[in-house]
Amino acid sequence: MQREAAASAAGDAHVRGFLPWLLAPERRGALLVTPALVVLFLMNIFPLLWSLGLSFFNYRANRLRVPSFQWFDNYEKVLTDPVVWERFQTTAVIVGASVTLQVVVGFSLALLFAKEFPLRRVLLMLVLTPMMLSFVAVGVFFKLFYEPTFGLVSQFAAMFTGEPYVVLATPAGALIGIVVADAWMWSPFVMLLVLAGLVSVPRDLYEAAEIDRASAWRRFTTITFPYIKALLLLAILFRTIETFKLFDIVYLITEGGLGSSTETIAVYLYRMAFQFFRTSQASALAYIVLFVVIVLTNLYLYSIHRRRGPG
Amino acid sequence: MRAGRQIGKAGYGWTVFVGVVSLIYFFPVLWIILTAFKTRADALATPPKFWFSPTLENFANVFSRSAVGSTEAFSTGFGLFFFNSVFVAAVSVTLALIIGTLAAYGFSRHPLRGNDTYLFIILTTRMLPPIVVIIPIFLMFRVTGLSGTYLGIILLYTAFNLPFSIWMIKSFFDELNPEVEDAARMDGSPERRVFLRICLPQIKAGLAATAVFALILTWNEFLFALLLTGTDTRTVPVAMARTIGGEIGVDYGLLAAIVCLFLIPVFVVTFVLQKQLLRGVTFGTIRN
Lengths: 311, 288
What we know:
- The structure holds two protein chains of two kinds.
- Chain A has helices at 2-10, 18-23, 28-54, 73-80, 82-113, 120-132, 135-145, 152-161, 171-199, 203-211, 216-244, 248-253, 265-274, 279-308.
- By secondary structure, chain A is mainly α.
- Chain B has helices at 12-36, 40-43, 57-63, 78-109, 115-127, 130-144, 150-175, 178-186, 191-202, 204-220, 223-228, 236-244, 252-272, 277-281, and strands at residues 64-66, 73-75.
- A two-stranded antiparallel sheet of chain B has the order 1-2.
- Classes of the chains: A mainly alpha, B mainly alpha.
- Chains A and B meet through helix 1, helix 3, helix 5, helix 6 and helix 7 of A and helix 1, helix 4, helix 5, helix 6 and helix 7 of B.
């Protein structure tokens, strides 16, 4: 408030005309924000409104026929389609398995790095690299590893069993293959957040616990865990949102195969929109996915506020 | 000492232990790097070869190579694809950074009515699955003829980087001490000067971190590029994906070499920006 007053005193608010009006201090916030909002409106909000409109028609991007208004037919079709529910289930399985694995691996890695030791920075970089890689690069890696004849995984299995093991030959194998690739890439993310929590624990708490002869488990549950609880929750939420959108890795490694065992909702949406060209129906499904993501994002931001608030 | 429970010091023994674990974790990347230096025969050897005589042939082949049975070299197009990746990322990140800095300053220092709502909507546009956004954008680009042009993909990437930039830069502005600015205003500095001479220099490091993160995000992006770039504007991730796209007799050594070249900027960034990594990957919502 005081700043505003000072600013307007310094400014030249008395001059008339459009430009001075535009540059007046009380419009400064709006003016600064406008370019960003315009770009976002043009490239995000407007297209989304367009597809909201489309979702009520029966438009197909590869036909010339004039689309007709359909009310909620597309939504009804999508929501009663057993295939859609199957894809949601596949996505849920991948999200559940991958996020669990990420938390376990990420947590273990964080425990390793929660100390000062020589070369820590270099080793930390090795572990953090997967997270910074392109999905395409990771897809290429794992496609090579899972390759039936020359791939490392099948070769490695052949050393013990004499038979090369083909990861992508069974639906369960394909699913595990995807989950491992995704979890490998994103465990470092969980590690970073847990590490931030671990580093913030005051050391004297441990010293006090030492004097009280608290057991290691008790020290963990009463001292360490409360400090990392909030960050761990954020990590899980963030990863859930991101894994829910999983597209690139699946598209590159299995293209949704074997059969459709690894087809996530994002891959299915891609197929629906750009292979079958059921544009309107895809828009309707997209809006359902959008709803889920907005709910999850809300939860995430709510948790951030709570963490900042009392703590 | 119990494994890592305390933020204490540990000796070389711990370094060795963590080193082994890190190397195992890093192994997939390491293997690709090794593969890039192998000849075609070595790359496909069974069982896999760990010791081999390295060759630089694959790297030479990335940009131009001769087809089997002919001596004349032809361009693989990867020179253009690398240029496209660099060009598109550089322009869109610069734009996003300029627009984003202004907006972040506005949100941080001159809050609007419903400031948090705006910020929430902005973050949501970034959290949306790309596949949801791409359907209408694909149609829009087809109508306006932006599909396959530099302008189109640059505009889209600018919008793609904007929410991230705003949240990141705002988090840096929020950490500044407003009393410094107030003091300058009391001394009669105009608002423009406060912004350019007092606020911006203080967050220089933050701006650099934001820029680099946005560059990496853009550099790595796949789906938008897959659907919206043409033969002339294709970026490296799309070109890479096309190389593995179910063709018979994929040249793994060559593919590995392309991946290696593609990864160099990523390694550099991960090393330099370690301190800002957490903030970067959470869009500035979590700070160390």
